[in-house]
Amino acid sequence: MFAAVEALIVTKSDYLPLNPDFDMEALKSQAAVLNPGIKVFMTNARTGDGIFELAEWVVRRRSTEMAGTE
Ligand SMILES: Nc1nc2c(ncn2[C@@H]2O[C@H](COP(=O)(O)OP(=O)(O)O)[C@@H](O)[C@H]2O)c(=O)[nH]1
Ligand SMILES: [Mg+2]
Predict the structure, then answer these.
(1) pLDDT, tens digit, for every residue of 17-66?
(2) What stretches of 1-70 adopt beta strand conformation (E)?
(3) What are the residues facing 39 on neighbouring strands?
(4) Domain boundaries, given as residue ranges, for the chain
(5) Which of 1, 63, 3 is nearest to 38 (CA)?
(6) Ligand 1: which atom is nearest the Cα of residue 13?
(7) Cys bridge to 7: 23, 27, 39, 67, which one at CB 3.0-4.6 A?
């Protein structure tokens, strides 16, 4: 799965501190082994953290895709 996707989105980031085993840097490095180009986003719908960055990437990615189909 990690090899096939372009982006990995970790949602509900406000819960992450509740899990002492979660290690964002380990997740990123392990995902990068399977997919060196993968983009990793962390979002929080409660605070809005990370949503802008994700939306910006989606819009940019979409316009690249559309440019390729013309
Ligand atoms: N604490 C917290 N709750 C969230 C967040 N995003 C969604 N939720 C809540 O989690 C539940 C499931 O939401 P959903 O967006 O469907 O997440 P999914 O089940 O992972 O697809 C709902 O009660 C949402 O209000 C978040 O960033 N933080
Ligand atoms: Mg859901």
Answers:
(1) 999 999 999 999 999 999 999 999 999 999 999 999 999 999 999 998 88
(2) 7-10, 39-42
(3) 7
(4) 7-69
(5) 3
(6) 27
(7) 39
